[in-house]
Write a structure and sequence with these properties.
The structure is a single chain. By secondary structure, the protein is mainly alpha-helical. Helices cover about 65% and strands about 0% of the residues. The longest helix is centred in the middle third of the chain and has 23 residues. It is elongated. The two termini are about 20 Å apart.
């Protein structure tokens, strides 16, 4: 596996692909309806976290750090 430069604004794994892209691939390619539904729910969760970060819902530094880690790693 080649080393890839990562964009810190993207959700990505070590393979360098954004998490939403991976989840969308699961939705499109999986024949398992439970797996497709789980991917859909994860995408909804990511969108909720992004919105929460944008509008500053949480006052907890620990929660904000956890959200940041989820969205940037």
């Amino acid at each position: 596996m080649n080393a890839q430069s990562l964009n810190p604004d993207q959700l990505s794994f070590s393979i360098g692909r954004p998490l939403p892209v991976l989840l969308e691939e699961i939705q499109k390619s999986s024949r398992n309806p439970q797996l497709r539904k789980a991917a859909e729910q994860m995408l909804e969760g990511l969108r909720t976290l992004e919105i929460a970060t944008e509008i500053g819902v949480s006052k907890s530094k620990r929660a904000n750090t956890a959200i940041y880690e989820i969205l940037t790693k």
